[in-house]
Write a structure and sequence with these properties.
Chain lengths: 512, 222
């Protein structure tokens, strides 16, 4: 079967992944929870190196190994750049090897696969949301340049990220910024005119061509997202916080003007153009709206937030923009201030517990005032209230080391709902329950959400479009039903592709 | 990613002697079947020779630790060889899973990578069906925007859902997650398949037609 000439197989010798056990690492604390499963900060026992362990959720038997995970792994395997998160290896957790009959247990690897990443202290959204945080101009330039450098590298390697947003840009205490979360990424080639799904990119960062239904797109989609992030950094808040697709496109038109054949040749032929065509003329008022920005910043932003993807600036050209070469110059990443590492996952959990304590305390106060009014109640069975220990080390529900408030961690963020249909927000699809919606952000609580309620700017985590750009993959796969990727790239809906399974499904008698 | 994709279109019924099923089966499947059939025929005696219990570790250079992922093809082995031919099996996969023909080429690339990476692992009649099922399924996950889930593939392929999940993981680890197939590599495999087709086809005195557009010819006689 020798087919490929030497060197053509793309095979390079690398340590075989999966050969090491997760026991080589000592889990320190959970720092996130997402569609994939939990994310832990861990220490490699042999070297003492701190890493992030992302557990791949394997509990959807029908789906098997998550597509997002396979795609992320295969893409990260070929990307090696200082501004792209490094996937160090894959480890497995040893499980029961055989079932009672001594046969291999099919569920043996359930939940037992981990991706090992380099550890990062923050992400851009979490950092920006720190109370009192203000980025300096050289700092913004420094982050933007790293973002563009990493993205340029991806694009040169023919990878579209397709989910650029603040929470996917990880930052370490050396000031390095790295692109993360390639679960939606895919390869493209310039000579490939295949159709790609337009249900990608978190709504607030989604470019107009996707909102108008384009299925032939390229690196320009990522550049729109970069423009949104750039504007957000300068402006201090998200610039297009739409709550659904129509509102999203309307917000874009209000700022960038409405597209027509003059400013965007071909736009009228896009599938949903007529649906979203504004009924009144809308002028581009980007310059007017952001007139307080410096000249070079505004110039660059103009070229990023260009409606026509063909005219939108590329990552390479953006790096050459005057902005990065004019005073004040981008600072050296190492010169950036170091921020105390913290994990919003925990911060939030702690805050939630505190709230529960307060509420419970209130209730208790009403019922039978405790001896010390500031004491939280203890829900320990068999203990009377009189036994509550006063003092600073009063037990909480599950003691926690103190975690400073601050930025969040987004190694494994909650993702969009399983796209089953419009407006279905994470009723069942997102196991972490942490998917946040601006309208709900103020409710706080609700499980492991990230980057929303705790901070004054609520609702920082944008909603996913009504169609759900990302099915979490955790549900929505009916038995024997096709895994239909169109609605949300990985979300299942039961339609499409005639189900042949009902007829003629004799199984061959050769399974063990 | 794949710039060149074997055409899915097919014109059936021009040659009265071909059955409807054959007329709608892309020729690439038949070529693949012939190649794998040949490989299995070559490998099977090696196994027989070595005794059934050693099946796959025929020339295994290193001892296999129990429970390690990606170390052996043993999990792909059935107790006995399925009584469906490789060609019919591929046809069945194609018919029910409706995945694009390029998935079969990419699935073959995976199997080829596998035997390159692990020369000690032999593709034999006991494992070739499961290998095909798993590799085509993974290829479909990589390539197709629309595809059936593992549960469906398991039904079509005649294995249990949990077994297929296990096989999927095994294969991914055996491949070290190298499941990217670039356009040039895909193209080179297509050329190889065409060349094989010529070689195989010459005995049938067939009129040569490009692989992608000719799926009518019957190579079952090989």
């Amino acid at each position: 079967m020798a087919v490929a000439a030497p060197g053509q197989l793309n095979l390079h010798e690398s340590p075989t992944w999966g050969s090491r056990s997760v026991d080589c690492f000592q889990k320190l604390e959970q720092i996130g929870e997402g569609t994939y499963g939990q994310v832990f900060m861990a220490k490699e026992i042999e070297t003492g190196e701190i890493v992030a362990l992302k557990k791949i959720r394997m509990d959807n038997e029908k789906e098997g190994f998550p597509i997002t995970a396979i795609r992320e792994i295969k893409i990260l395997k070929k990307l090696h750049h200082e501004n792209v998160i490094q996937l160090k290896e894959i480890v497995t957790s040893p499980g029961p090897e055989k079932d009672e009959q001594g046969r291999p247990d099919g569920n043996k690897y359930k939940g037992g696969i981990y991706m090992v990443f380099e550890y990062m202290d923050h992400d851009l959204t979490g950092l920006a949301d720190r109370p009192g945080m203000r980025f300096s101009v050289p700092q913004i330039k420094c982050y933007m340049r790293q973002l563009l450098t990493g993205l340029h590298y991806c694009h040169v390697n023919q990878v579209l990220h397709r989910d650029i947003k603040g929470s996917n840009l990880l930052i370490d205490n050396e000031g390095m910024l790295k692109l993360a979360d390639f679960g939606l990424a895919r390869s493209f080639s310039s000579d490939h005119n295949g159709n790609l799904t337009n249900r990608v990119i978190t709504l607030w960062y989604r470019p107009p061509e996707l909102l108008l239904g384009s299925t032939k797109y390229g690196p320009a989609v990522d550049m729109w997202s970069v423009g949104c992030i750039f504007a957000e950094l300068l402006h201090g808040k998200p610039v297009f916080p739409g709550k659904d697709e129509p509102e999203q496109i309307n917000k874009i038109f209000e700022l960038c003007g409405a597209p027509d054949e003059a400013n965007w040749p071909g736009v009228t032929k896009l599938p949903w153009y007529t649906n979203f065509k504004p009924n009144r003329p809308m002028k581009r008022r980007l310059r007017e709206y952001f007139r307080h920005f410096d000249r070079h910043a505004l110039e660059l932003l103009e070229r990023m937030l260009t409606l026509d993807p063909a005219q939108r600036i590329s990552a390479k050209d953006a790096l050459d923009a005057e902005y990065f070469w004019a005073d004040p110059l981008p600072c050296d990443p190492k010169s950036l201030p170091k921020y105390e590492a913290s994990h919003e996952f925990q911060t939030k959990k702690k805050r939630q517990q505190q709230r529960q304590h307060e509420e419970a305390a209130k209730r208790q106060k009403l019922q039978h005032p405790p001896p010390h009014s500031r004491l939280p109640p203890i829900q320990q069975s068999g203990q009377s209230h009189g036994q509550m220990r006063p003092g600073p080390n009063q037990p909480m529900h599950g003691s926690h080391s103190s975690v400073p408030a601050g930025p969040g961690h987004h190694y494994g963020k909650p993702r969009g709902p399983s796209a089953g249909g419009p407006n279905r927000y994470s009723q069942s699809g997102n196991p972490s329950g942490g998917y946040s919606h601006p309208n709900r952000a103020s409710q706080g609580g609700g499980g492991g959400g990230y980057g929303n309620a705790p901070y004054p700017q609520q609702g920082r985590v944008p909603p996913y479009g009504s169609s759900g750009p990302r099915g979490s993959g955790a549900s929505g796969y009916g038995a024997g039903a096709p895994n239909f990727q169109q609605g949300g790239p990985y979300g299942g809906s039961g339609t499409g592709r005639g189900s042949n399974m009902n007829r003629n499904q004799q199984q061959y008698g050769w399974q063990q | 990613m794949l710039a060149t994709i074997p055409s899915e279109d097919h014109v059936g019924g021009q040659q009265p002697e071909t059955s409807a099923a054959e007329a709608t089966t892309p020729r690439v499947l038949l070529i693949l079947a012939a190649i794998l059939e040949r490989l299995v025929t070559r490998n099977d005696p090696l196994i027989e020779h070595n005794g059934r219990n050693n099946l796959i570790h025929y020339v295994s250079p290193r001892p296999l630790a129990a429970g390690e992922l990606g170390m052996s093809l043993k999990v792909f082995n059935g107790v006995r060889a399925p009584n469906i031919s490789i060609a019919k099996y591929l046809e069945r996969l194609f018919k029910y899973t409706n995945c694009s023909p390029s998935c079969f080429v990419v699935g073959y690339v995976y199997i080829d990578r596998l035997v390159h990476k692990h020369p000690e692992l032999l593709v034999i009649s006991l494992n070739v069906h499961r290998l095909l099922l798993t590799s085509v399924m993974i290829a479909s996950k990589m390539l197709d925007d629309v595809q059936y889930n593992n549960a469906f593939y398991a039904k079509v392929g005649g294995v249990s859902n949990s077994e297929l999940n296990r096989l999927e993981l095994e294969l991914l680890f055996l491949l070290n997650f190298e499941v990217t197939v670039s356009s040039p590599i895909f193209q080179s495999y297509c050329w190889y398949l065409e060349k094989e087709d010529l070689r195989i086809g010459s005995t049938l005195k067939r009129v040569q037609q490009p692989l992608a557009f000719d799926i009518k010819d019957d190579v079952n006689g090989i």
